[in-house]
Design brief:
heterodimer, A: alpha/beta, Spore Coat Polysaccharide Biosynthesis Protein SpsA, Chain A, 7-stranded mixed β-sheet, 8 helices, 41% helix, globular, B: mainly alpha, 2 domains, 4 helices, 0% strand, elongated
Chain lengths: 226, 112
């Protein structure tokens, strides 16, 4: 089975992004990195044998970048499994095999990473912890799908799942949309515990608490406007 | 009186401006007609404010001024929703365009 990691990056910095790419590349057949209109040195990362770099000429958001990566992985690389992986160094490449196993074994279409199933997340700020919990309650209430961590970016999708779902929310609220799609498309899903590391650097480059609140606005907008 | 004069002057300016835009082919005939009718109504209300009281009484609203506020709020809310829908559609089109360019032109392999 061909496993492709899709890594969106927006102004994460070349060193941090290359480190995340190298980490993931050791456990997949190919990496598709989407430079989402970065204005820093992230945009200078070159393609290599197993890393294909796509560039959004305008910043469109993580949801849009993930869909771009999925389109390329499905139609140009013939991916059987797509792994969503962050560029900010918070995730661990050696957990990719554990995440893809339920799909490879034919037991699930979607595998969702969770920070709340295994060991407690290291150095996760209290405010973040509270927001993630509230976000989970909010999303569970709206989508009706029961998961423990709704805004974890570490996911694995089978070819069938990735082909049948289309992410239309460009920015961070795409995580809720993915759960909606899992439910409406009746995809089989499981959760797996993943390790997310929080350091000063990754917190600075990662999603801010303010952006987390803006996500709620995007979810509501999508529900109202469509 | 001052406010009525201001309303009439502003409405006349708005109509003149939309006619100018139409002559430059910047707006459609449909748009210039709708826009002009709207401002002609504003001029009518400015000249005969008591007329709105009769319409308000017919509509079951206390005063003409109240009716105008209700109508304005309803119209503005509808306009905001339409703008949001249009903006959303435009945003989706931009994303589709950016995506097509990205997928069709992956970064060249740097073999150096």
């Amino acid at each position: 089975m061909k496993i492709v990691a899709v890594i969106p990056a927006y102004n994460k910095g070349k060193a941090l992004t290359e480190s995340a790419i190298a980490d993931a590349a050791g456990f997949v057949d190919a990496v598709v990195m989407i430079d989402d209109g970065s204005t820093d040195d992230t945009s200078s990362i070159p393609s290599t044998d197993r890393v294909i770099v796509l560039r959004h000429i305008l910043n469109r958001g993580q949801g849009a970048a993930l869909q771009t990566g999925a389109d390329f992985a499905l139609h140009h690389l013939g991916a059987d499994v797509i792994v969503h992986f962050d560029a900010d160094g918070q995730m661990r490449g050696d957990e990719i095999l554990m995440m893809t196993k339920p799909i490879v074994d034919g037991d699930a279409d979607v595998v969702l990473g969770s920070r709340f199933l295994g060991a407690p997340a290291k150095d996760m700020p209290m405010i973040r912890k509270v927001l993630v919990r509230l976000g989970t309650l909010f999303t569970v209430a709206l989508s009706g799908i029961r998961v423990t961590d709704t805004h974890n970016g570490f996911r694995a999708l089978s070819r069938h799942a990735a082909s049948s779902m289309r992410i239309t929310i460009d920015r961070m609220a795409h995580a809720s949309e993915i759960l909606d799609l899992v439910k409406t498309k009746r995809l089989r899903y499981v959760e797996r515990p993943v390790t997310i590391s929080y350091s000063a650097e990754t917190l600075q480059k990662g999603q801010s608490t303010i952006k987390a609140l803006m996500t709620i606005k995007d979810i509501l907008k999508k529900k109202v406007v469509g | 009186m001052m406010f009525q004069l201001f309303l009439i002057a502003f409405s006349a300016y708005a109509i003149a401006r939309s006619l100018k835009q139409y002559s430059r082919k910047q707006v459609s005939k449909y748009w210039v007609v709708v826009w002009s009718v709207l401002w002609v109504i504003v001029i009518g209300v400015a000249l005969m404010p008591q007329a709105t009281d009769r319409i308000a009484a017919f509509a079951g609203v206390g005063r003409g001024a109240d009716l105008l506020v209700y109508l304005a709020v309803t119209f503005l809310l509808y306009a905001v929703l339409r703008l949001m829908v249009r903006q959303q559609k435009m945003s989706e089109e931009i994303t589709a365009l950016v995506r097509t360019i990205a997928v069709d032109h992956p970064k060249h392999h740097d073999r150096s």
